[in-house]
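Milestone M4 deliverable, item 7.
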Amino acid sequence: MSTPENHHKINYIEFTSTDIEKTKSFYSAVFGWSFEDWGPEYISFTGLGIDGGFAKGDVKAGGPLVILYSNDLAATEKGIVAAGGSITVPTFEFPGGRRFHFSDGVGNVLAVWSR
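Output delivered:
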């Protein structure tokens, strides 16, 4: 995933689930998806056209979180702020990398990650 051709492209989509086990059961039964567990509050899927995951929490009215990849997380963050966007969740680490969330200034919230 961390190749130059992925820079600033949609790379991952994250959904919210109130029940991780029920989510796994549903998508496995209906669509044949398989998941990797990252603890009791996160599961991921790959090889389905786009990779993604489900995080335990309240389902948000805004829908899924679209996540872009960046070869240079700090430069991308600076570019977002310079263009009038704002950082809504500061950079944090997770297994496999780091990411932050941002608002584009017109109501959309997305995230950017990097290894």
